[in-house]
Amino acid sequence: MAQIDAFFKLMNDQGASDLHLVAGQQPLLRVRGDIERVKYKVLGDDELKAMLYEIVSEDKVKKFEETGDVDFGYEIPGLARYRGNLFQQKFGVGAVFREIPSDILTCEQLNLPPVIKKLAGLPKGMVLVTGPTGSGKSTTLAAIVDEVNKTRSDHILTIEDPIEFVHKSQKCIVNHREVGLHTQSFANALRGALREDPDVILVGEMRDLETISLAMEAAMTGHLVFGTLHTLNAAKTVDRVIEIFPAEQQAQVRSTLADALKAVVSQTLFKRVDVKGRCAALEILICTPATRNLIREGKTYQIPSVMQTGKRYGMQTLDDAIMEYLQQGWISPNDAYINCIEKGKFVQFLTKPPTDFTDV
């Protein structure tokens, strides 16, 4: 048992999502969205480095010492998996760990809208799950892939950095590939994937032009591709995909994306005020013919209107999802106001003026 495992056990007991270990400070946990200090001594740089190097492979240590940061995965059998980032900071080494539960929650357990489960049945195309860091994108994707695994007889290929949720083959065969360990890059893995007979491909992060281009190509050639982006809403997700390409290619990319894209799910995580826990408010864009036309014509600013009128297809805006949680008493008016798009709809629920003066 590694020395650091005691912190992971504490993290699990406290229901924390993240563990922060930084030289010159006490350990810290993120519990229900808030950072809390652990009653423990201040960690010295040499002490912390020895603790971390005990669980990091030699090649990852070498990369860290050359570049100043590195991503890696760690697992404690019977407890959980952890996505770690090791980084150098002013007072020495630092590390942040995100807990990846061993048990994969279903769409029903996560209280996801019924249309999310239907995405697992799509024969081909691209589905993007977006949101800020820590918004639960990986958890939502894991639930969808789990549904594929239980209901289809296909080959699922995941490409991640590092591997997060581990799916055991059920009706499907599942292969997990980790960037840096099993392949050099997302792009290399996607190029190889087209020769590995996959039906469903999960791309852990679509972070550059080549990866996005190859993902769209895979979606256009008969594969179902799931991916994540760090964008705040559905319209901005479409813009982000198009704008990463050179200006002279963007007209063609709009046309390709309109054909390839099936849905965008953009989520924001909230702290529950009625019970312990958190909930995700989802903005859902389904690519109907009307949506495809807007993408082709570059009129993404009209996408919110399509979501308002497309509720029968399972679409919903982020503000509608937030309002539903607020009216159910699940979230606080302040959190609702901070995360909503149209502030005017929510200011009436505040008991005092908003704290962000830039919104006034």
Largest sheet: 7 strands, mixed
What's the mean pLDDT score?
93
Strand % is: 15-25%
Q: Total domains, how many?
A: 2
**How many DSSP H or I helices?**
13
The CATH superfamily of the largest domain is P-loop containing nucleotide triphosphate hydrolases
Give the structural class.
alpha/beta
* Distance separating the two termini: 53 Å
- How many beta-strand runs? 13
Oligomer: single chain
CATH-level-2 architecture of the largest domain:
3-Layer(aba) Sandwich
Main sheet: strand order: 9-8-10-11-7-12-13
| H-E string | HEEEHHEEEHEHEEHEHEHHEEHHHH
Low-confidence stretches: none
The CATH C-level name of the largest domain is Alpha Beta
Q: Could you explain the architecture of this structure?
A:
With 360 residues, the chain is α/β, with parallel strands linked by helices. The protein folds into 2 domains: 5-101, Beta-Lactamase; 114-345, P-loop containing nucleotide triphosphate hydrolases (Rossmann fold). The protein has 13 helices and 13 strands. It has helices spanning 5-14, 45-53, 58-67, 114-118, 137-151, 186-193, 209-220, 234-243, 250-260, 289-296, 303-309, 318-327, 333-339; strands spanning 18-22, 28-31, 34-37, 69-76, 80-89, 92-101, 125-130, 155-160, 173-178, 200-203, 224-229, 261-271, 278-286. It is globular, with a radius of gyration of 21 Å. The relative contact order is 0.09. The model has no long low-confidence stretch (mean pLDDT 93).
